[in-house]
Specification:
Layout: H1 18-24, H2 32-53, H3 56-60, E1 67-70, E2 76-81, E3 87-92, E4 102-103, E5 105-106, E6 111-116, E7 131-137, E8 143-146, E9 154-155, E10 165-167
Antiparallel strand pairs: 1-2, 2-6, 3-4, 3-7, 5-6, 7-8, 7-10, 9-10
């Protein structure tokens, strides 16, 4: 990988509890250098994550950031991670399937972000159960249709097709179930 840790001599890598491990299982002793190399790769990956996301904890809660989120003011924020994409677009029922009308803005580390303001009447621009797709412009300038890996609701109509459809789950407040026995 070529990071700070993986380029070091394996014997210099401090692996927590390695002596205890080797005492418990002496058959691992011939593989000590390999264990140290793999731990160095692990440390490189952790540093890369922390550089891009701030912390491992923040990275593990990506579902709170990525995907499509509807704010209290009914605006929409969509965030995706697509490092190989040339451009990213959001399309669906809400924009009459105009594939390039709603373009994401490219951020650092392969992140993309899109903001959709609420409609003039204050309603959400993407209605409950609307179908949407991510359009990815790849290295060959092809527009590819994809579902977000952060989709929170997908459906499949087997009588129509074997493919899944990403839908927005945002029911009106009066249609949301309120727990009675908590």
């Amino acid at each position: 990988m070529g990071g700070k840790w993986s380029t070091m001599d394996p014997s210099e890598i401090q692996v927590p509890e390695i002596n205890t491990l080797l005492e418990r299982d002496p058959y691992l002793k011939p593989y000590e250098n390999e264990i140290r190399k793999r731990y160095a790769l692990f440390k490189d990956y952790i540093e890369k994550l922390e550089t891009g996301e701030g912390s491992l904890d923040k990275f593990s809660r990506g579902y709170e950031i990525y995907g499509i989120h509807i704010n209290e003011d009914n605006s929409v924020v969509a965030k995706e991670w697509a490092p190989g994409a040339q451009e990213l677009f959001l399309t669906g029922d809400f924009n009459s399937w105009n594939r390039t009308a709603n373009s994401y803005k490219k951020l650092d580390y392969g992140k993309w972000e899109l903001h959709l303001p609420p409609n003039a009447d204050g309603s959400c621009p993407i209605k409950h159960l609307s179908e949407i797709k991510i359009i990815v412009k790849d290295q060959n300038n092809e527009l590819l249709e994809r579902l977000s890996p952060w989709a929170t609701y997908v459906t499949q109509d087997k009588s129509e097709s074997a493919t899944y459809k990403q839908r927005i789950w945002y029911p009106l407040p009066e249609n949301v179930y309120i727990y009675k026995y908590v």
